[in-house]
Design goal:
There is one protein chain. About 40% of the residues lie in helices and about 15% in strands. It is α/β, with parallel strands linked by helices and about 350 residues long. It has a domain of about 150 residues: Rossmann fold. It has a 5-stranded parallel β-sheet. β10 and β11 form a beta hairpin. The longest helix has 17 residues. The relative contact order is 0.17.
């Protein structure tokens, strides 16, 4: 253990001494995995418990939204472009991966702009980009739409199920979640700004700290949270100033605002949340897959026995799910939380079920 980590461990222990049992929720899938990879839980005193919230964009994508993507992928003249994590998420008896195995044109991309290149290369096919993610990835989709408009690419469209974090946090905390402090996502704050989480102390009366993803950065944020809890003075601390400015990335925010507008969105585990989704503005309606195609709405029940929804609300640790590690494992996932590289179940499985 290096000296910096040890000093922060001691500081957290000193600040937490005498506090009642305390629950800290992180709402970022990268934090979920980084904390387990670095063994952060093992460095904390026994009265601090870390839980995961709805911070994995693949995991919170609602089954109905995934069903729309599967319907599009099944159309004869459509190529659906998606990040790789989405392909293995079960949706009833199918997934994008199983459809691809049956001949559907599903293309894995690492950047939305690859869909633009594909649309130019195959002008007679409808190219649909499946836009999934929070404020971190939504600007890339906005750039795709902006460039498609500038270049007049008529065969490109976007199925946007992008979501924004603040309204989901409000909804979860106001639903009675047993949480004492929030570790806020550094990736989101890098785009939206650390001040995007000012509502946590001001409205919800909870301490909040924006954190990076190295061990010392996460411990520094946790020390700040313990200090605020000890003083009984909730506030917002930006413990990731090297990447997250107070008001974010102005260029990315301007692009987001120019292309998208807020709308209600369905979240796995949380239901419909007003103003938590991003829809294309009217001037970009020609690139909206929902308007271009007559996509049926399909209700998709959660798989029997799957407790992914409870994991996303912080009500359940992954090993407490009866399917964890047996019927549901990375090689044969039942729930979305076991599929994604940012999922809580995948993190518990990868880094030790007893950690």
């Amino acid at each position: 253990m290096n000296a910096g980590v040890e000093a922060l461990r001691r500081e957290i222990a000193a600040r937490a001494d005498g506090l009642p049992d305390t629950v800290v929720m992180e709402v970022c899938g990268t934090h979920t995995h980084a904390m387990r990879r670095y063994g952060i839980r093992q460095l904390l005193p026994g009265n601090i418990r870390l839980v995961s919230g709805p911070g994995c964009p693949v995991c919170v994508t609602d089954g109905r939204d995934l069903a729309r993507a599967l319907w599009l992928a099944g159309q004869r003249n459509v190529t659906l472009c998606s990040f790789g994590d989405m392909l293995r998420v079960p949706c009833g008896k199918e997934s994008l991966l199983s459809l691809a195995a049956k001949g559907a044109r599903v293309r894995v991309v690492v950047s939305p702009l690859e869909a633009l290149q594909l649309a130019r290369a195959e002008p007679r096919r409808a190219i649909v980009y499946f836009g999934v993610g929070f404020e971190t990835t939504a600007p890339l989709t906005a750039a795709l739409v902006d460039q498609a408009g500038r270049q007049s690419i008529p065969n490109l469209s976007v199925l946007s199920v992008h979501k924004t974090m603040p309204e989901a946090v409000r909804t979860l905390m106001r639903s009675g979640a047993r949480v004492d402090a929030l570790l806020c996502p550094g990736h989101v704050a890098a785009v939206a700004g650390a001040e995007a989480f000012r509502f946590v102390p001001e409205e919800l009366r909870l301490p909040a700290a924006v954190s990076g993803f190295e061990a010392e950065e996460m411990l520094l944020a946790l020390a700040a949270l313990m200090g605020m809890l000890r003083a009984k003075k909730p506030g917002l601390v930006n413990a990731y100033p090297r990447a997250a400015a107070p008001y974010g990335n102005p260029a990315a925010l301007a692009l987001l605002e120019g292309v998208f507008e807020p709308r209600a969105a369905n979240w796995r585990g949380l239901g419909e949340i007003p103003a938590s989704g991003l829809a294309l503005r009217g001037e970009y309606a020609g690139f909206d897959a929902e308007k271009r195609f007559d996509i049926p709405l399909t209700d998709v029940p959660e798989p029997a026995g799957c407790r992914c929804a409870d994991v996303l609300r912080g009500l359940l640790e992954p090993p407490e799910c009866p399917l964890f590690g047996s019927a549901c494992a990375p090689q044969s996932p039942v729930g979305a939380c076991m599929v994604s590289s940012e999922g809580a179940c995948a993190a518990h499985y990868a880094y030790g079920r007893d950690l």
